[in-house]
Amino acid sequence: MGTCSRTGGTPQGPVLGPDNLCLELQRHQQSLTMRHQHSVTMRHQQSLTMRHQHSLTMRHQHSRTMRHQHSVTMRHQQSLTMRHQHSLTMRHQHSRTMRHQHSLTMRHQQSLTMRQKHGFTMRHQYSLTMRHQHSLTMRHQQSLTMRHQHSLTMRHQHSLTMRHQHSLTMRHQHGFTMRHQQSLIMRHQQSLTILTMRHQHSLTMRHQHSLTMRHQHSLTMRHQHSLTMRHQQSLTI
Prior knowledge:
- By secondary structure, this protein is mainly α.
- It has a domain at about 80-130 and about 140-205.
- Helices cover about 90% and strands about 0% of the residues.
- Helix 1 runs antiparallel to helix 2 (about 140-235).
- The longest helix has about 120 residues, at about 20-130.
């Protein structure tokens, strides 16, 4: 398009001749060009902004994913370590219980053997004494009978005492084992509860982040649509 001359016109105002129309068309064309250039610049700027925002979001998401993966790995490793420790503790406890039980059994067996040997010796001695003392009086015979009765009573009392002691030892060992097992179960239950709460919190935060991003995108799209409609209306006018 060529240049337009500025001839024509009166003191009261310009005359809309061919040259004046040419100038009006040039100004209108320049206005459309500037608007179009501004629209292209804004779209390019918005595109760069969206790409940058997407890049930051992806980096942040990757960082959270890696941290979550590391947290899950550490929890799993800790769980395996606790299981292995529990297995070693139970084996050690079982080994000590079996050795203690074996020790009690051997002592009881030795006690029975000694009592049996002692009983045989005493009966044999009593038999010899009775034969040798046959000529003694009834009072001496009664004295020997009372001594023998006392010996039997003492042996019976000792046997009852040993059995009662063994029963108390076994009850104490069983009570300690049950309390230890209950303590381990309670600790494991507390650990599972803590892990469940952390996992629930993580899921809630992810859901909240997803809703926020959707809402932000919806608002951005509505605002962009509104600007586009206003711009279109401006061009139409």
